[in-house]
């Protein structure tokens, strides 16, 4: 996998009842502009719908946007991804996540939480790095030594 041919596949979505989608649209556009293949959903996605789409689209990274308290159901998403055999997919969360709730997300397996003030370069750079990691993990699982 060379960086010239590698195009991370990123699912940008909102789960739960949070309908504030401006941030997720901006991040999706930044990922696209950075050369990533972006699958974008409108707000109000269910966990089973996100898992199904991640499986169908063979994504490397899932970006969850939360401006309300919907980040609190991300641990259920993480478990559903593992149950579906998608434990290699990296999940990041962006938006309003109180510091005392970030540990809950990390314990569930979320790789990173992007807070207000994160730059698009920071976000897209980290997403690209996580996508590379996810692909390598997937390849190692498919070709055990």
Task: Give the helix level as a range of percent.
Answer: 40-55%
Largest sheet: 5 strands, parallel
Which class in CATH terms? Alpha Beta
What is the topology, as strand order, of the major beta sheet? Answer: 2-1-3-4-5
CATH superfamily grouping: Cobalamin-binding domain
- Record field, number of beta strands: 5
Q: DSSP strand (E) fraction?
A: 15-25%
Cα-to-Cα separation, first versus last residue: 19 Å
Write down the Rg: 14 Å
Label the CATH architecture. Answer: 3-Layer(aba) Sandwich
Structural class: alpha/beta
Number of domains: 1
Mean pLDDT over all positions = 93
What's the helix count?
5
In sequence order, what are the helices and strands, one letter per element?
EHEHEHEHEH
> And the CATH topology?
Rossmann fold
The rough form would be described as globular
Poorly predicted regions are none
What does this structure look like?
By secondary structure, this protein is α/β, with parallel strands linked by helices. It has one domain (9-142): Rossmann fold. Helix content is 46%, strand content 17%. The chain is built from five helices and five strands; from the N terminus they run E-H-E-H-E-H-E-H-E-H. Strands 2-1-3-4-5 form a five-stranded parallel beta sheet, sandwiched between helices. Helix 3 (74-83) links the parallel strand 3 and strand 4. The two termini are 19 Å apart.
Which SSEs are present, and which pair or pack?
Layout: E1 9-13, H1 22-33, E2 37-40, H2 47-57, E3 61-66, H3 74-83, E4 90-95, H4 99-108, E5 112-114, H5 120-142
Parallel strand pairs: 1-2, 1-3, 3-4, 4-5
Helix pairs in contact: 2-3, 3-4
């Amino acid at each position: 996998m060379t960086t010239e041919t590698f195009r991370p596949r990123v699912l940008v979505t909102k789960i739960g009842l949070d309908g504030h989608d401006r941030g997720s649209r901006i991040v999706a556009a930044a990922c696209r502009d950075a050369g990533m293949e972006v699958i974008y959903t409108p707000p109000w996605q269910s966990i089973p719908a996100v898992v199904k789409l991640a499986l169908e689209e063979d994504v490397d990274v899932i970006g969850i946007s939360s401006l309300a308290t919907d980040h609190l159901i991300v641990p259920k998403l993480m478990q559903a991804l593992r149950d579906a055999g998608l434990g290699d997919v990296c999940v990041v969360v962006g938006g309003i996540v109180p510091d005392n709730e970030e540990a809950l997300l990390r314990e569930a397996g979320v790789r990173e939480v992007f807070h207000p003030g994160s730059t698009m370069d920071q976000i897209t750079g980290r997403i690209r790095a996580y996508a590379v990691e996810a692909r390598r993990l997937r390849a190692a699982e498919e070709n055990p030594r």
